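[worker-b] picked up task from shared queue
[worker-b] task type: protein-ligand structure
[worker-b] ligand name resolved to fe (ii) ion; SMILES cross-checked against name lookup, match
[worker-b] sequence length check passed
[worker-b] input payload:
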Amino acid sequence: MATNEQLIGRSDVNDIEAILSVTNTDVDATVHAVRDNAEAIFTWDYEKGARPKLSRLYEKAKTSMWNGETDLPWDTEVDQESVVMANAAATGGFAQGMDVTGTPFASWTDAEWLRLGIESQNWTLSQFMHGEQGALVCTAKIVESVPWIDAKYYASTQVMDEARHVEVFSKYLDTKLSGHYPINAHLRMLLDDIIADSRWDMTYLGMQIMVEGLALAAFGFIHSFTTEPLLKQLLKYVMADEARHVAFGVLSLQEFYEQLSTAEIRERQEFASEAAVRMRDRFLQQEVWERMGVPVKEIVPLVMQAPDRAAFQSMLFAKIVPNCKKLGLLDAADGWLRERFTELGVIAFESWADTGEEYEAFALAQGDKRSA
Ligand SMILES: [Fe+2]
Ligand SMILES: [Fe+2]
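[worker-b] inference finished, payload out:
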């Protein structure tokens, strides 16, 4: 039975010292290579529609493509300072419900809080962009490694979707915001682990269920409050795609998991748990605190304990937990994953809607697209 030490390299999930010791050391490198350990699988069974739900998803994807250059209002003027102020007002202020008395924040002026908001936005959108590239690479791997023709067909449409997502987040950062951040070390570790695993279903679990499940929730949260019309539109389009991607994961793994042994399911539970911790760690945004010049080890515990922050972090799991439940991962092997999600404070989402069919609700209406 794997321990926390083996799964995430530390025995206490909340060991701040250990979390912060993981940093990205090759920030100036232009490429990062990971061995992907998988076999490329051909299938000679070309029967289209043998898996009707995947086939339906593929047909849906074909008619849901959009063009990142022409369907979004790139001529929108974005005043990042005003956007950041409006975001802070909508989400309860920069301090997010923290009592700053006696902390390094106590002496901060309005200008410093504003800079934090701007850096946080640059960081957040940068991590979305890097995560999208992770999805691009993972989905290309699924095209190669999955043995089912309906899944290869569908995954090929997702490759195109992810290219578009990388493209639009990159363009938004370059033309509307004020700086990039390198990939967060915890996010990179997670993407490396997903890509390095030789088993095709682990790519789905890591990417479609965990990373994209979190992305769908995070994009939805930002979409709900941002008043910046270009970003709002961009997120709406990306979410319409992401809801299909998460459905692709749920529908594929549901069938595959039915024939796995308890021991094999347990490995999937452990993988899901490791991914959940890595994603929680990444949202501590240690690189932002470093750039702001504040003592990171002092700040991170404050941030972790802030009530609004805790609510935000747990909301990120609103899709992951019900999807893991639908896949039978929560309660298999004596409820091991249920216990882990309880420790992370996210188990309350188990009865929320799963994403197996939810993509219909996220679909863009006819006429949404400028070029339609
Ligand atoms: Fe994406
Ligand atoms: Fe995606």
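[worker-b] attaching auto-annotations
[worker-b] The radius of gyration is 20 Å.
[worker-b] releasing lock
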